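Q: What does the predicted 3D structure of DUF1257 domain-containing protein look like?
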Amino acid sequence: MAYNLVGSVLLSTVAKSLVWLPDFSLLGGFLVSHIVQIEAQVRDPVAIRAACSRLQLPEPHLGSAKLFSGLREGWIVQLSGWRYPVVCNCNSGQVDFDNYEGHWGARSRLDAFLQRYAVEKTLIEARRQGHSVVEQSLADGSVKLTVNVAGGAS
């Protein structure tokens, strides 16, 4: 099951979780807390840049990159220790990469980037709607986001 809460962040299942208070206008103003696990379609270059900055990765750039499997176009992200870059196609939301089952780069680096992208996109969209957000890193590696909606309890 997928949740399309805000903008182009598509929510379904993946390893890391966020605590998210959905767009309350969709719920008729009822305040609820909902824990979801997320998988983000990567569609926002601003969130890609923010994720790279927070992870202290090189600045991403739009272009073509040669992966082992062929040429890909999109936002090019170079993860630490990876032989080939990750390519984010913001039109399709698809992320292309080739790490040869971990031999050419640790999957955990990609997971960290995707988690950070999802957090940054959530922060951007929540703030765009006028909400304040508190971010907390948890001991298990997940990130808790508390979105405070004006006029309501969080």
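A (community wiki): The structure tokens above were generated from the sequence. Strands lie at 3-4, 10-11, 17-20, 34-37, 61-67, 70-77, 86-88, 95-96, 132-137, 143-148. The longest strand covers residues 70-77.
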